[in-house]
Amino acid sequence: MLPWWMGVIISWGAVYVVAITVCSLVWLMFRRVRVCQNDHSVKCSND
Hints:
Blueprint: H1 4-39, H2 41-46
Keywords: Membrane, Transmembrane, Transmembrane helix
Transmembrane segments: 6-30
């Protein structure tokens, strides 16, 4: 059996990794959309 605090650390670590992954994906999507709107607005609207 693991100590209870190791379970807490593991669970918080999993939540931390998931949060970082989701935030990085959202940031990449947001940056891609923003760059698309700013630099290539004509191409994006025509596509």
